[in-house]
Amino acid sequence: MDPLVLVPGLLCTEALFAPQIGALAGDGVKVQVADHRQDETIAAIATRLLGEAPPRFALAGLSMGGYIAMEVMRRAPERLMLLDTSARPDTEQQTENRGRLIALAESGKFDQVTPSLFPLFVHEDRQEDAALRALVGQMAIATGPQAFVRQQRAIIARPDARPFLGAIACPTTIVVGDGDRLTPPELAREMQELIPRAKLEPVAGAGHLPTLEAPDAVTGLMRTWLAA
Q1: I need a surface site. Which of 71, 91, 185, 212 has the fewest CB within 10 A?
Q2: Does residue 30 lie in a domain region?
Q3: Quick check: is 175 in a domain?
Q4: How far apart are the C-alpha atoms of 31 and 24, rounded to whole Å?
């Protein structure tokens, strides 16, 4: 089975995939988590990923990680999983919202960023989940304000990936929480329609972070995808 490279989302660390990493390690899968905190463009992050990855690998990215994964696929198509992401570029409103969060981080108010984002990160039924809120906060602290700003600037400048999706020839699984409000299911369906060999897998009861909200369901999808 090919090694697996995982790409976390904005403000997230390897803890985003901790349930899957533990389960897949038991299956003998070698898992590597990409570094998406050092660079200020999606292209540069993809270059770093490819420089550190094995010669052949399966690739899965969530949210911002999906933007990076689509850039990697232009250069090294093998096997792809996209989780709660979008092929579209930022809208004007999204860029304005990111600018406000960047301003908070750069003015010493980084502690206000996670409380602003958490309600959008998780399913509406998980809003009062203290353990999940704490984990998201821990990942944000580990990321830090400077890396957060780099990530946001990379996301703002990302290209429209839709014109290139038709060239993805490898088996592709698209996963989306059925309650994701940041990259809702209709964006996942759009990618499925554009990628020739794509399969869509909605995750019930999950929002934008299904790897943590419904870990067993996502682990099962990863096992099926890796074994295909």
Answers
A1: 91
A2: yes
A3: yes
A4: 8
For the record, the structure tokens of 147 come out as 């890396």
- Is residue 18 situated within a structural domain? yes
- Cβ–Cβ under 8 Å, residues 213 and 205: yes
- Residues with Cβ within 8 Å of 88's Cβ and at least 6 positions away in sequence, in order, are 160, 161, 162, 187, 190
Residue 10 DSSP one-character state: T
List the beta bridge partners of residue 5: 32, 59
Does the pTM of the predicted model rise above 0.85? yes
Residues 73-76: contacts with CB within 8 Å, 24+ apart?
Answer: 73/168, 73/170, 74/164, 74/167, 75/46, 75/50, 76/50
In this prediction, residue 79 carries a pLDDT of: 80
Q: Which of 72, 68, 58, 69 is nearest to 24 (CA)?
A: 58
The pair of three-digit structure tokens given for residue 86, joined into one six-digit string? 């979008």
The 10 Å Cβ neighbour count of residue 185 is 17
Residue 76 has pLDDT above 80, yes or no: no
Question: How many folded domains does the chain comprise?
Answer: 1
CA-CA distance, 35 to 45, in Å (whole number)? 8
- Mean pLDDT score of the chain, rounded to an integer? 96
Q: What is the CATH number of the domain that holds 20?
A: 3.40.50.1820
Would residue 78 count as lying in a domain? Answer: yes
Q: Domain limits at 50?
A: 4-90+155-227
**Can you give the length of the chain in residues?**
228
Tokens of 171: 């088996």
31 vs 216: CA distance, rounded Å: 17
In whole angstroms, what is the distance from residue 62 CA to residue 175 CA? 9
| 9 SS3 class | coil
